[in-house]
Amino acid sequence: MSEKLPSNALVVQSALREQGVSGEIVVLPEKAPTAATAAAQVGCEVGAIANSLIFDADGAPLLVLTSGAHRVDVELIARTAGVERVRRATPEFVRAATGQPIGGVAPVGHPAPVRTLVDNWLGKHEVVWAAGGHPLTVFPTTFDELVRITGGRPVDVE
């Protein structure tokens, strides 16, 4: 299957293997611009989708892996991260920080580590689906595994 993966997804698959993750990247039949469309394609609850949101936190990238059932409270995240301002990152900022496009940002496989916060709500699901580095790719994982492979900090996001 990896022969059919987009190049960014191959980078992510390699990073996952290096971290001992056994979940395979899956190519979706169509793009999933929302957590609801991703959930429908993989057959899970919306809350089990780990949205990868890159924010500009005082000029540095901040990855928030949030449940598809939540909206991120940027003021809460700023306080949690200890920064003055958190705002939505531009597509160029996201690509520079992760090497991946908006809509497909994986929790790993970035050119350099990105500070990461992981929504505690994801821990309510046995299996969580995260982006695989391309808008058509996802992979199954767990809350604990996401925290481990990202070095992320479990937090409340709303």
Multimerization status: single chain
Q: Main beta sheet: strand number and arrangement?
A: 8 strands, mixed
Low-confidence parts lasting 5 or more residues at pLDDT below 50? none
Assess the beta-strand content as a share of residues: 15-25%
How many DSSP helices?
A: 5
The radius of gyration over CA amounts to 14 Å
- Secondary-structure element order, N to C: HEHEEHEHEEEHE
How many strands appear in the DSSP assignment?
8
**Structural class estimated from helices and strands:** alpha/beta
Separation of the first and last Cα atoms = 37 Å
Shape: globular
- Mean pLDDT equals 95
What is the helical fraction, as a range of percent?
25-40%
What does this structure look like?
With 158 residues, the chain is of the alpha/beta class. It is built from 5 helices and 8 strands. Strands 1, 2, 3, 4, 5, 6, 7 and 8 form an 8-stranded mixed β-sheet that branches.
